[in-house]
Design brief:
Length: 531
């Protein structure tokens, strides 16, 4: 955890220490297990689950809204225990092996993840919609022992790769075998000691500015995130929280949301489609409490006619993946006075932890608040100078959620992590004098126009303030006089910046980040409709 703020040089308003030039969190500190204590993700998660809910046998955990299939928490615990036993016994899997997992969201995935993690097996999760070349690269990086796939995804795997089909009757029997050994005691029973420093997962970064990398996350990384969720959980009023698996469980946002659902005893819905109407129908039918969403979902919600849906159960949207503009946030609060927004910033490299803003009311001011388990610096990207409040630079983060490194890429690891454990995020940010963090954009995506630094996200927020524009993205475009000019891709009626292209949709990663490099290539080499 981040150091306790006892230094007299720390400004109580901004959290900035004038002696070290480090920004400290202004949130209450969070207690973590001692780093030396042997502890797995599964053990820690299940211990919190048992302390947070009492009616495990009847509380629904997973619901497939398409076919109505349900799994209670009691069944989930049994399935995890059963699968861990079966995988160790029948497939001779052991600590340190890598399981490559290629599947869309399903009711089997949570038990698969937690069973593998309970055995010290590293889960390498990949996008099932990825290209063959992308997946081949990821498989080579992860140095797999076994793969888990479905009848829809297995054709993308190498034919010689030992593969278990998770939608098969055989896998179902592994989940539901009749065993009595306790999962909490299983690791010690078979002689497996899992240290918090052991690698738990390889998650592949979004690759918005280049080929994606395999991010090594430890059991300690996930334990710190779960401890943070447990300490700051907003629903403590004895309601049964119903959430949605709207984000892919192979990504860090979806995976940590799953872990939050486990430790807090939430009911998690799996939808066949996340189109706006289908999502709102599920909210109405299942009395959904909170939904993890992207900013584009909030924009669509603000601009939609909702007369056919009853949304009184919905209390919170958890927004991540990209910055949420103030205008969009205010428009949302004007339309939905009883629904709050938790706007979060995080990276795969920080196990999704970073900073959070809670927007309970219209006109909420300020930016994000740094997580209690992190410290931050703002660094001038040109001079390397450490900056003070109000100055823009690259955000560096340090704390127990920061990754171990990139698998098979020592050069990239050295470039991202310095010798003191600071992660260079690549994001242009600043802290104001009240300790609020503002995320402006990716440094590599800045537009250099006539000697000025233009932030694409600021222009996108301006475009989205127009009620007729459904979605928008701004990229750099070469210009002989200015060097670069902003070019906007717009979904909806024409609104000119300096160059505009009309397209059917904005390409985004699974985490909701705009894939600007694809748009740049589209602008330079493809035929687009322009004005």
């Amino acid at each position: 955890m981040a150091a306790t703020n006892t230094n007299s040089q720390i400004d109580p308003n901004s959290g900035f220490c004038s002696e070290t030039n480090i920004f400290h969190s202004l949130r209450p500190s969070i207690t973590l297990p001692p780093p030396s204590q042997p502890l797995s993700v599964t053990q820690f998660a299940f211990s919190l689950l048992h302390s947070n809910i009492t009616n495990i046998s009847e509380t629904p955990f997973l619901i497939n809204t398409g076919n109505g299939h349900r799994v209670t928490f009691s069944e989930f615990l049994h399935q995890t225990k059963s699968l861990a036993f079966s995988l160790q016994e029948q497939y001779s899997l052991s600590k340190g092996d890598v399981a490559f997992i290629l599947s869309h969201n399903s009711l089997q995935i949570p038990s698969l993840y937690f069973s593998l993690l309970s055995l010290g097996i590293i889960i390498a999760t990949a996008n099932p919609d990825g290209s063959i070349s992308e997946l081949t690269h990821q498989i080579q990086l992860s140095r797999y022992t076994i793969a888990f796939a479905t009848s829809q995804t297995s054709h993308k795997l190498p034919p010689k790769l030992r593969t278990v089909m998770i939608d098969s009757p055989e896998f179902s029997s592994l989940l539901n075998s009749n065993i009595s050994i306790s999962i909490e005691n299983r690791s010690s029973a078979i002689g497996v000691v899992i240290n918090q420093s052991d690698v738990a997962a390889i998650l592949f970064s979004s690759g918005t500015t280049g080929r994606n990398k395999g991010v090594l996350l430890t059991h300690r990384n996930f334990i710190a995130v779960m401890a943070s969720h447990n300490a700051t959980y907003p629903f403590r009023d004895h309601i049964q929280v119903v959430s949605m698996a709207t984000r892919a469980l192979f990504g860090v946002f979806g995976l940590t949301s799953l872990m939050r659902a486990v430790i807090m005893g939430e009911t998690l819905l799996f939808l066949e489609t996340f189109e706006l109407e289908a999502t709102l129908e599920a909210v109405d039918k299942y009395k959904v409490t909170c939904i993890p969403v992207s900013p584009s979902f909030i924009v669509a919600l603000v601009k939609s006619d909702l007369t056919n849906y009853h949304l009184s159960s919905l209390r919170t949207l958890i927004c991540g993946g990209a910055p949420l503009g103030h205008k969009v946030s205010d428009n949302f609060r004007e339309k939905f006075t009883n629904i709050g927004i938790i706007n979060g910033y995080g990276l795969t490299e920080t196990t999704s932890a970073g900073a959070v803003k809670i927007c309970p009311q219209l006109g909420s001011v300020g930016g994000l608040r740094l997580s209690a388990i992190l410290e931050a610096k703002i660094i001038d990207p040109v001079t390397g100078e450490t900056l003070s409040p109000g100055q823009r630079g690259e955000l560096w983060l340090r704390g127990p959620t920061v990754m171990k490194g990139y698998v098979g890429d020592e050069k990239a690891t050295a470039e991202a992590l310095d010798s003191n454990g600071w992660l260079k995020t690549g994001d242009l940010c600043y802290f104001d004098f009240d300790g609020f963090l503002f995320i402006l954009d990716r440094l590599k995506e800045m537009i250099k126009c006539n000697g000025y630094q233009v932030v694409p996200a600021e222009l996108e927020h301006l475009l989205l303030s127009n009620s007729d524009i459904v979605d928008a993205a701004v990229v750099q475009y070469p210009d002989e006089d200015a060097g670069q000019i902003p070019m906007a891709f717009v979904v909806g009626p024409y609104k000119k910046i300096q160059r505009v292209a009309f397209i059917d949709f904005i390409p985004k990663s699974v985490t909701g980040k705009i894939l600007r490099r694809k748009l740049v290539n589209y602008a330079l080499f493809d035929t687009v409709t322009e004005l």
